[in-house]
Design goal:
It contains 21 helices and no strands. By secondary structure, the chain is an all-alpha fold. The protein has a single domain, classed as Sodium/glucose cotransporter (Up-down Bundle).
């Protein structure tokens, strides 16, 4: 079989299998709850792979290796070490308690969970509105996937963008959370195989001396804190911000709601182990940034480092064309694995937490909510598509500015709602959310902080101050605070 025929056969198989899995999911989707979080009948292993794939996505497989290529070891530590620590900590602290509270209240979205915990419709709607910042990450994924597809097929990036959008929306519209979970499991296994293969195959670039080979690229390139970098230059920007922001990013709606898929606490450990192992495999892709530099590639556009590397690395082998096809399809799958999850969560959130409150309705007739969520999905796609047609130059930083703002506003109210036994104080949650979002935006646009993770970390630390002040005063008055840290 020629490489060209192999390419179309692989793409055809991927498309057919994805649509078939979505059709299976559609048969289980009867209402907006099933569309959003399923019917509590998914395996924890499937949910774990789905979670890891949702967390990793195009950022890990396509965009972040470019930061490693430019900034060196400091960027690798920021994403691989600090980021992994933040993800793992968030899952260990949140999963059991958050899932239990969600089950008790019947919440199906993050703003819905906020409403059930705080009994504040205005706070819930605020979170629904700021969660629309997730559209920036949708744009990142669409741009990253379109770059890959235009490299794989002789079509323009605009045509690639259009085809990707139509394909993803077609299968998400069918099956919602089930389509997302089933296709993510399939895509997640592909992603793990490719990440391990590329890491092992390219390890020869180190020449048996990892430290020495990286040092040959420049003393600061090998440094844990790179003084030449405008993004990762000290402990705060490299490790602390990476840990805090990644921890906070687990509050995103398409990530945190995965915990509501779980049936009971018996599934939690299986879910956590699967998520951590799969995520560790995916992080191996960051080494591509090192490999591209050691190979001597001169790449002008940071976001195209992975695409350029795999094209240069595998084009000289007899089997290279076949490997390039499979890897490219897998990188596309990595983007879609998060894109579909964001779309499901955004559409459910707009319907449940914005449309219903504004319309004054208390619920839907059978099937009406599901139908409306699908229309909203189409609207979100159109907006993201229009932005992606003319994206910012550094799409990775563009997405981080929006999504990190969402994280800065979310982390303290969600932690407060998770660990305070009784109904948390609404005014404190409001203050924390406003301080988090406002401080992040001020850091970026008023104080000129170039690394969005740094501005978001400062914002998160500041957003904790209203909570500290409230409970210090409360403890003085009542001689005690009642927290629950028993997972």
């Amino acid at each position: 079989m020629s490489p060209e025929l192999f390419k179309y056969a692989c793409v055809g198989f991927y498309v057919v299998l994805t649509l078939w899995l979505s059709w299976i999911g559609m048969r289980k989707t009867r209402d907006i709850k099933g569309f959003s979080i399923g019917n509590k009948d998914m395996s924890p292993w499937i949910i774990g792979v789905t979670m890891a794939a949702s967390v990793s996505s195009t950022s890990t497989f396509v965009i972040n290796p470019g930061f490693v290529y430019v900034h060196g070891m400091s960027a690798f530590i920021h994403y691989a070490v600090a980021g992994t620590a933040g993800i793992t900590t968030a899952f260990i602290l949140l999963t059991r308690r958050f899932r239990k509270l969600g089950d008790e209240t019947g919440a199906i979205t993050i703003p819905d969970w906020i409403y059930q915990r705080y009994q504040s419709r205005s706070l819930s709607m605020f979170f629904a509105i700021i969660n629309l910042l997730s559209v920036t990450f949708v744009v990142l994924i669409l741009v990253g996937c379109s770059l890959l597809m235009s490299q794989l097929f002789p079509i323009s990036q605009t045509a690639s963008l259009t085809l990707i959008l139509l394909f993803v929306f077609s299968y998400v519209l069918m099956g919602g959370s089930y389509a997302h979970a089933y296709t993510n499991t399939f895509q997640g296994f592909m992603m793990a195989l490719v990440a391990i293969f590329i890491f092992v195959q390219g390890f020869y670039h180190f020449g048996g001396d990892v430290r020495g080979s990286l040092a040959s690229l420049g003393e600061n390139f090998m440094a844990a804190c790179n003084p030449d970098s405008n993004l990762y230059f000290d402990f705060f920007s490299v490790f602390l911000s990476g840990f805090v922001v990644t921890f906070a990013l687990m509050m995103q709606p398409h990530i945190l709601t995965k915990m509501l898929y779980l049936k009971n606490d018996a599934d939690v450990n299986k879910f956590l182990v699967t998520t951590v192992i799969a995520g560790a495999c995916f992080m191996l892709m960051l080494a591509v940034g090192f490999y591209a530099r050691l190979k001597g590639l001169e790449i002008d556009r940071q976001d195209s480092v992975v695409v350029s590397y795999i094209a240069a690395e595998f084009s000289g082998h007899s089997w290279g064309a076949y490997a390039l096809v499979f890897i490219s399809i897998t990188l596309l799958a990595a983007g879609m694995s998060t894109l579909d999850g964001i779309l499901v969560s955004l559409s459910a959130m707009v319907v449940k937490d914005l449309y219903l409150p504004f319309s004054g309705k208390t619920g839907f007739q059978h099937g009406a909510g599901l139908k409306l969520s699908r229309w909203v999905l189409i609207g979100v796609g159109v907006v993201a598509y229009l932005i992606a047609l003319n994206p910012p130059q550094l799409i990775g930083l563009f997405a981080q500015k929006g999504v990190y703002g969402l994280a800065a506003a979310s982390v303290v109210p969600i932690l407060l709602g998770t660990y305070v036994r009784h109904q948390p104080p609404v005014v404190v949650a409001w203050l924390a959310a406003m301080v988090g979002l406002g401080a992040h935006l001020l850091g970026l646009f008023a104080f000129g902080i170039e690394n969005p993770a740094v501005s978001a970390t400062y914002a998160i630390l500041l957003s904790a101050l209203p909570v500290v002040v409230y409970y210090v005063l409360n403890s003085i008055k009542n001689k005690g605070i009642n927290f629950n840290f028993n997972n």
